[in-house]
Structures are given as structure tokens and as C-alpha cells.
Write a structure and sequence with these properties.
Elements lengths: L1 E11 L6 H16 L8 E5 L2 H4 L5 H7 L7 E5 L3 H13 L5 E8 L7 H16 L8 H14 L5 H12 L3 H5 L3 E3 L2 E2 L8 E9 L1 H7 L4 E10 L7 H4 L3 H14 L4 H4 L2 E3 L8 H7 L25 H16 L3 E7 L9 E9 L1
Parallel strand pairs: 2-3, 2-4, 9-10
Antiparallel strand pairs: 1-7, 1-8, 4-7, 5-6, 8-11, 10-11
Helix pairs in contact: 1-3
Protein name: Acetyl-CoA acetyltransferase
Keywords: Transferase
GO molecular function, one term: acyltransferase activity
């Protein structure tokens, strides 16, 4: 169990800085808020991707920028930042560190359109690992899943648009009339790509108490991964990994009835077709709609590898605003959509 004592997020549609510069300013701001300096940091964990950073070995740039230079323990993960939070929390809980900085940066150094670049990266990631299939990408896989639900009568395109419209606060017709991407999905049904950096300062409960700081307590995690193309889970039950992760997180947190014990939730539903299946997987079907996705979800802001931190901060802000006690945060690595995705479910408590 660890405590979030400070955080900094610099998110926007465009950034003039390089990834390491953006990360440096973000980490510096978080440390200032916590009243700490670089020598106080025992562990630094960074989430980023070389291909987006336009550097074959971005460790040499991002790790020093994230208070990693001459720090006792430092590492970088090429996946959603939620995995970095789990790693840091485990180290702190084991008593091997008192202060950890978890940071991530998503600032693609590409001049092409964001979605076009993401599709290229997604296809490159999927092809050598899973299948040498033309057009295999996160969007095409999400569209096939959504199309299956529409054609078998489970949902309709209008219902998918209604879910997206509710999250965006716009009319259903605006969603339906947005640019078609891959039937039945339109542009406004997909995550809103944004860029930037996030830094979280975590501490052991004892150190946080000594500092007189703390916004939320990380109670438990659960992690699970979905399979490849052959097992068909990505098409028939892409929520299954979330169900497994949630089961572990709730068991470790001692939660028996999630719908009554959880006050707010943040989901990473990469398409509206994933929204209801994920709610069921998290056992939150009975939780009021207004308590889910208070930050607006991924259709308002999706920051690539820093998405997990955005969802976590959104949940904490909802708890602080509404006076809730406990939240659950769901995040997943969407690089290849529902294919081989690592899902993390985190249970938080407001301090």
C-alpha cells in the first residue's frame, strides 16, 4: 500500500517540447508540490515508447529527466503507466523505498495526423507478434468487435453513438455524423488522442504521514492480459481480462459488493461497444452512470501510455469533489486494441 502525495500533469493537443523536456518539467513540478528534491527519490519508473519518442534508446534521455540520474533504482516500461504504478507500489510496500516517482510521456515526434501515425504503429506492433495480416490494427480490431455486437443484435450503432455522446456532452447526431472510421465506428466514438506528460509522487504511509501530505491511498491492484488472435477472446469476450484483473483487485482490497462499496469509477473503454461489457466485468452495472467516467473518459482525453495516470487522477478528483471514499480505476494498453492487451484494475481510497 502506498500514498499519492503529489501529481503534475501537462496535457495538451500539441507540445513544442521534446519528450524528455516535457517529462523533466512535469516531474520537477510534482516534486516541488511534494516539497521534495531529487536526492529524496529512491525509485523512478518511467512509461514511454521509443517509436513515439523518435529515439532508438530513449532511456538515456527520459530516465535522467525523471529524476533517474544516480537514483538508487530506476527503470522504464514500454506500456501503460498503470504497470509502472503497480511496480512502484510493490517496491514501496516491500519496504525497499520510501519515495517513488512514477512518470510517463506521450509526445509523438511525427508530423503526420495523430490517428494515422497511431494506426501505423499499431500495425507494426501487431504484425510480427500475432499475424502478418493486412490492415490489422487497434481500430480495425475494435471495429470488428463492435460490428459483431451490432450484427447479432446486442447493440445498435445509435446506442454506441448515445454512449459516446453522453461522455462528450454533445448530441447523438453529432457523433453519428462525424467522419466514419470503420463501420460501425465513427471518429467521435474513438479515444481523443492527446499528448503530454504526467508525474506522480508516491510514498510509504509512514513517510506520507511524516510529510503531512496525501491525496489518496492505493489499496490493491489486479492485472491480466488478453490472448492472441487464435483464441478469439479479443472478438468474443475482450472484457475477460478486465474481469480477471478486477476479481484479483477486489479480493486483495476485501471488496465483496463492488456496486455498493465503490463510489466512483474510471474506465478505459476504447470503443463505446466496450463500455457495458467492461461495467459488467468490473461488477458495476448497478453503479449510477454519473459515478462512472467523471473525467469524461478516453473520448475526451486519451494520452497513450499516460492514460492510466489520467484515469487515476480523474478518479481522485471525483472523490475529492463529491466526498466519496473509494474508487476503482481501469486502464489497458491499447496499442493493439483488444489483442494481447494488459489490463490493470486499481482500487483507491481518498485520504
Amino acid at each position: 500500500m502506498s500514498v499519492l502525495v503529489a501529481a503534475s500533469a501537462q496535457i495538451g493537443s500539441a507540445f513544442p517540447q521534446r519528450p524528455d523536456e516535457s517529462l523533466y518539467h512535469c516531474v520537477s513540478a510534482a516534486l516541488r508540490k511534494a516539497g521534495l528534491r531529487k536526492p529524496d527519490v529512491d525509485l523512478s519508473v518511467v512509461a514511454s515508447r521509443d517509436l513515439y519518442d523518435a529515439c532508438s534508446m530513449s532511456n538515456g534521455q527520459t530516465l535522467p529527466a525523471a529524476a533517474g540520474w544516480l537514483t538508487g533504482s530506476v527503470t522504464r516500461l514500454e506500456t501503460d503507466i498503470s504497470a509502472a504504478i503497480v511496480l512502484a507500489d510493490a517496491v514501496l510496500s516491500a519496504g525497499d523505498a520510501e519515495i517513488a516517482v512514477v512518470s510517463g510521456v506521450h509526445l509523438p515526434q511525427a508530423h503526420s495526423a495523430a490517428r494515422s501515425f497511431d494506426e501505423q504503429v499499431s500495425n507494426l506492433a501487431a504484425e510480427p507478434i500475432y499475424e502478418r495480416a493486412v490492415g490489422l490494427s487497434a481500430t480495425s480490431l475494435l471495429a470488428m468487435h463492435a460490428a459483431r455486437l451490432v450484427t447479432n443484435g446486442t447493440t445498435t450503432q445509435h446506442e454506441l453513438a448515445r454512449i459516446a455522446a453522453r461522455e462528450l456532452g454533445i448530441d447523438v447526431e453529432a457523433v453519428l455524423s462525424s467522419a466514419p472510421v470503420a463501420w460501425p465506428l465513427t471518429d467521435l466514438m474513438l479515444p481523443a488522442e492527446t499528448t503530454g506528460a504526467v508525474a506522480l509522487v508516491l510514498a510509504t504511509p509512514e513517510r506520507a504521514q511524516a510529510m503531512g501530505m496525501g491525496r489518496a491511498r492505493i489499496v490493491a491492484h489486479g492485472m491480466a492480459a488478453s490472448g492472441g488472435l487464435a483464441d478469439g477472446e479479443w472478438l468474443e469476450a475482450p472484457h475477460a481480462a478486465t474481469e480477471r484483473a478486477a476479481r484479483d483487485a477486489y479480493r486483495r482490497a476485501g471488496i465483496i459488493e463492488p456496486s455498493t462499496e465503490i463510489d466512483v469509477a474510471e474506465l478505459t473503454a476504447a470503443s463505446p461497444a466496450m463500455h457495458e461489457p467492461l461495467r459488467r466485468a468490473l461488477q458495476l452495472s448497478d453503479l449510477a452512470d454519473v459515478r462512472i467516467g467523471g473525467s469524461g473518459g478516453v473520448r475526451r482525453s486519451f494520452g497513450g501510455v499516460v492514460n492510466g495516470a489520467l484515469r487515476l487522477l480523474g478518479a481522485i478528483e471525483s472523490l475529492e469533489r463529491d466526498g466519496g471514499r473509494r474508487a476503482v480505476v481501469h486502464s489497458t494498453d491499447t496499442l493493439t486494441g483488444p489483442l494481447g492487451a494488459t489490463t490493470t484494475v486499481t482500487v483507491l481510497e481518498r485520504i
